[in-house]
Sequence to fold (1132 residues):
Amino acid sequence: MKKTLLFTILSLFLTVSYAQIDRTQPPKPGPAPKINLEEPNTFELKNGLKVMVVENRKLPRVSIQLDIDNPPVLEGDKAGVSSLMASMLGNGSSNIPKDEFNEEVDFLGARLSFGASSAFASSLSKYFPRILELMADAAINPNFTAEEFEKEKAKLITGLKTEENDVSAIADKVQRALAYGTKHPYGEITSEETVNNVTLFDVEQFYRKNFVPANAYLVIIGDVDFKTAKDLVTKAFTPWTRAVPPTYSYSKPMDAQYTQINFVDMPNAVQSEVAVQNLVDLKMKDDDYLPALIANQILGGGGEGRLFLNLREDKGYTYGSYSSIGNDRFSPVRFTAEAQVRNMVTDSSVVQILEEIDRITKEPVTAEELKNTKAKYAGRFVMALEQPQTIARYALNIEKEGLPKDFYKNYLQNINAISVADVQNAAKKYFSTDKARVVVAGKGSEVLENLEKVSFNGKAVPVLYFDKNANKTEKPDYNAGIPEGITANDVLNKYIEAIGGAEKVNAITSLKLVYEGEAMGSKIKVEEKRTADKLAQTTYMNENPMMGVVAKGDELFMKQGGNKMPLPEDMKADMMNTMGIFVEQALLANGTAKLAGIEQVDGKDAYKLEVPGKITQTSLFYDVETGLKVKEAAVITMNGQSQNQSGMLKEYKEIDGIMFPSIKTQSMGPQEIEVTLLEAVINQGVTDADFE
Amino acid sequence: MKKLLGFMSLLMVSSGIIFAQEVEFEEYKLDNGMHVILHQDNNVPVVTVAVSYHVGSKNENPEKTGFAHFFEHLLFEGTKNIERGEWFKLVSSNGGSNNATTNYDRTYYYENFPSNNLELGLWMESERLMHPIINQIGVDTQKEVVQEERRLRVDNQPYGRWQEQMFKNLFSKHPYRWTVIGSLEHLASASLEDFQNFNKKFYVPNNAVLVVAGDFEKGEAKRMIQDYFGPIPKGPDVVQPTYVEDPIQGPIKVQYEDPNIQIPLIMMGYRTPGQTERDAYVLDMISTYLSDGKSSKLYKKLVDEKKMALQVFAFNGSQEDYGAYIVGGLPVGETSLEDIMKEIDEEILKLQTELISENDYQKLQNKAENNFVNSNSSIAGIAGSLANYYLLYDDTNLINTQIDIYRSITREEIRDVAAKYLKTDQRVELEYLPEQKNAN
Fold:
């Protein structure tokens, strides 16, 4: 006890001595740190290769980066040729066999990899001269063999297969294809078919045409001095033959004409991938480049972006929602705002994202948002300087994008000068909610119903359907899976068979069924009498008849107390379709039922038959295995309003050689009533008086 | 060949000389038991403030899994002096970036700032520990968010459940048997009080290490650390649980069907010792030998020469108490999973019975050296390593000395460790398959 007290006093004492700091307010930042923006040393080889060297001695390592800055290439019906080429590069050279080459790279503990228009290597500085040689050799004297080609092709195809059920990979592919069109380098789709069109000769030709030094940059960063680097690079890369890549032309991508949802059905999805996108014509050297970045940042640039705060923090729809805006000097590129959301809230997420985009184009951002975002950019700029790659990237951008030489020197100043109006203008120019393409990849059977109801700014947003390769398609049919050759009549006949067989069923001239149950504290009894062309149904509550429906000849009326009320003509017409001891007999005779597919009822597959009608649309479900009817549902539409009814039929039992469901559960709106079979009387006790 | 030999001998001479880019640091304890590590580097004006708590999914109640990770989310919901929703804004509006990660053994929070915001970082992390607001709004929101995180990272992700399937079979007593993200049911039924108790138990200064790395002056930093963290009261001691697993009686054969994939995957898992054990380092080298780089044994044989596999992998996922050594591959075309397994087993058997070549051994050393140099390349990365080495290895200086452990590993040890742990009858064989659709 004493000890505790002492401790308390001590901690009190300590607390007092700390009282100088004010915890209630965030501490103010100190003076802005000085930044040191170095410039790389550069030189150019005769073949056009431009070289940059950033000396950085902090760690004993060097990285080498080759960047061939060609315009994008449309690969067309040979899509995949560039990735095949990339995967075949770096596997030896015409001078060093593959195994020996790979062994040596690994032995050095180094990394070396190639892309379709790039290469990268890194190693300890003591191995830099050798890894540079190996990289140059592999780049200039590639080792394209038939064996490697076949292997890489098989791998690429297998790789494409791995993506077939991958929701985010499909979403990404379709987003691009729809934004740019499949006849554009950024939108074209690599498929098994296009890969199979590629030959080894195509790869070699692609290499010869495109893997050339005219637009190439080589960036060396790390523990090496300029002179050494220059000597080694000159020796290694001078043999690269001077050549300029061909120029290609392709169709200019266009935005959607009106805002629409493009839906891709992914039955295995447990989340929907939602992306709202439009095209932007934005280059780094544009005057509103920085304001566009700031607008995007405020909208969805991170954990404090509006999208994140709305969809994640406020609504909990998603793990994260972000936007991004591209820039490209060869082609329009995408602005996208996206989220992966749970199925239930797919439609709401679409609306929320659209609303956030709309808001930032229509209302100015707050001064505080702008201030905070500028600070974020400033901080990011300062912190990025920790990596020597940043210096190289800045220098490369100035060259490639045609930026003013002092672009990065003035960067912080230019960021700081951006006004609220600049941001809104950029948002208006680059973000669209009236020509937006909302690409959703998700589980249609769970999300489509609500997605089809989405409207925005007072207009319905139409849903168009696409397959996994961005081809237009029909609305998915969730009732697929019917075995070939099965018709509605087969299902109806099987039912008749299952309940006792045609002979017994056709011998029935009248039928009385009585079901009993409880609802809202009252005893409910439902009595149904049928002949071939007449029907009377009476519902009793606590033994008093509450309501009746009678159909005969061309009459259809409702009885309540002593009153007879005729029902609408259209409903009568519908009803006549389904008259008979068993509905199925009528449907077999008039052929109006359609087999709509297979759906699960209580966990078991059931055939779904649809009986169309003007007012009443009926669906009947028959167990695939037993043939018995397990569910009846109807949608009744009158005066523009719809009501759903459905009932489950369970536990069939035999009475006089015919099977009847002994339990029916009936749902009407929110209520559910269960009734059990009290009696079934065949060919007795039904008279004409029952139908008055 | 001659050229290659000459080149090799050149290497032998030059290797062994490595610039010792020593990471200097100072460490001490506050009176409340909080451990502090300072790493000063004034080259670039950036600073990282990080706190690691010695609590991960390992410390969870089996009936309440996912708490550690969930709690990480909750601790961004605000504090007494930082309103809900302000955390991220505060960081980014001051030019910083931040995040947090949870694993089996620890939970790590960090902010990276331009160096003029060191004090802000210290204030925020001290607020997180001293004044967290754990309320129903936060719990409700983060329940939804974590569910989506699970769907994103696990349920919708091709091969997203391998870890869950593997670990529940590798471990029967140790909490490593459940995943860090845990059970959505457990989280759904968790009460506010559960979370408050979790906070009281684990989020105490004596269960944490604070790392400040980057551009600052030590005297000033120490004063501020004392100001912000000193007043936080010490909590009850946190006792780390210990579990001893019985050897696996096996092989345990498991199948799992994933609706998100087309290509099956075979994966063998072996239970291995905790990451501080020397054997764990040897197993790292074995992974490199088997699957790192195009000349590695499994890649070269299965992917390159025999074209049986699309991809092969071997890695030692070590944790504080145990590791899981995982090796496997994805078949190409009609190759069966069994065949892939057979080929892998053949290579492992060689490793267990023969010494690897001198050349391969030197290659492993070069790779280890390269990894070592690259591991300390950013201030943020150094901060994370310092926290880990202190908290989970109890030796902060491993950041400088770990390379010596790799250097001292012999070829004989590699053989013996492979034989000791990679036993076919003490492993889990997971066939990870595409989901079969009902043909109807």
Remarks:
- Chain A touches chain B through 91 residues (CB under 8 Å).
